């Protein structure tokens, strides 16, 4: 009898077969059935509906007195994605978006995720939460084939921002991650965020920026290749991946995902929390025209935030958070300050801020005019 797993592997393509077989041998499949169940019957259950980044679902900044079980549903979707510049990615996604949606809970809460692998998918998937404890972050307990579902619950014991990603084993891990399968979870302290003095901090809005590096192959003429499905894309994509030179470095799945008509919006005087994740490579966010008033560079809220940063560092495989109060109106560029990656490869977002200009903070004393170079500007030279 042909099993679902065998059918999935056959459809995925001959090139992927040895990799999938190796993946099955690489990671331990844990059996936790002998452990006594946790009695959480006294805890309140709430359901949160995930929404597409850069927005984040409704949540409290200060938790109620008692921990809760916070339920989420997430569907794995394999699909072709237009990433701009004439390139199409055979993507693997959480909930159909790149990055996957951000979850928010509080320290001491229980995260309960119902994970669905759509029947039309070709690949086996799972989820590894960097916020979780044991079982490869849940990866050993969530392996699902197409048409299967699973439920994982873990206790959020450490406050901070954390990456989650697919990690089905062996060479499949990097391929799934750079094909779009990563996201973030924010575990807030129960009493909310605090500054360097321990005083309460609130934000008016939160934006989730997920940065991805893509490795889309080109043909002999230099044009981006396009594939029928994710299995067919694997051999050529692997060759580009192993060269470690991305074809694209983008925010939220494509060039221009957060610029133009898709730009973010805020108002003068608002405090905005930027959560930034990168599951695979180091990056360095920078807000042109602004700063990081408070920056949890490693994303961990038990550590006091740094202040007044111009650029901060997000390690590959982590998420960080930065709070900024917008003091001037205008268009701000939020970029990866490897400016080659920002300008040429796509890692740029725009924030449009409404308000009234403050000349005390910046003033154009004189608009550009021509000057007499024979007499003026000489004293500017050393």
TrEMBL record:
The keyword Repeat applies. The keyword Glycoprotein does not apply. SUPFAM superfamilies: Cupredoxins. Binds 1 Cu(+) ion. One of its GO terms (biological process) is nitrate assimilation. Its EC number is 1.7.2.1. Its main location: periplasm. Keywords: Copper, FAD, Flavoprotein, Metal-binding, Nitrate assimilation, Oxidoreductase, Periplasm, Repeat, Signal. Pfam families: Cu-oxidase, Cu-oxidase_3. It is found in: Periplasm. GO terms for molecular function: copper ion binding; nitrite reductase (NO-forming) activity. InterPro entries: Cu-oxidase-like_N, Cu-oxidase_2nd, Cu-oxidase_fam, Cupredoxin, NO2-reductase_Cu. Its cofactor is Cu(+); FAD; Cu(2+). Residues 1-23 form the signal peptide. It is an enzyme of class 1 (oxidoreductase). Residues 81-191, 207-356 form the Plastocyanin-like domain. It catalyses: nitric oxide + Fe(III)-[cytochrome c] + H2O = Fe(II)-[cytochrome c] + nitrite + 2 H(+). Pathway: Nitrogen metabolism; nitrate reduction (denitrification); dinitrogen from nitrate: step 2/4. One of its GO terms (cellular component) is periplasmic space. It comes from the Bacteria. Cu cation binds at residues 125, 130, 165-166, 176, 181, 337. Homotrimer. Belongs to the multicopper oxidase family. This is Copper-containing nitrite reductase. It comes from Pseudooceanicola marinus. The gene is nirK.
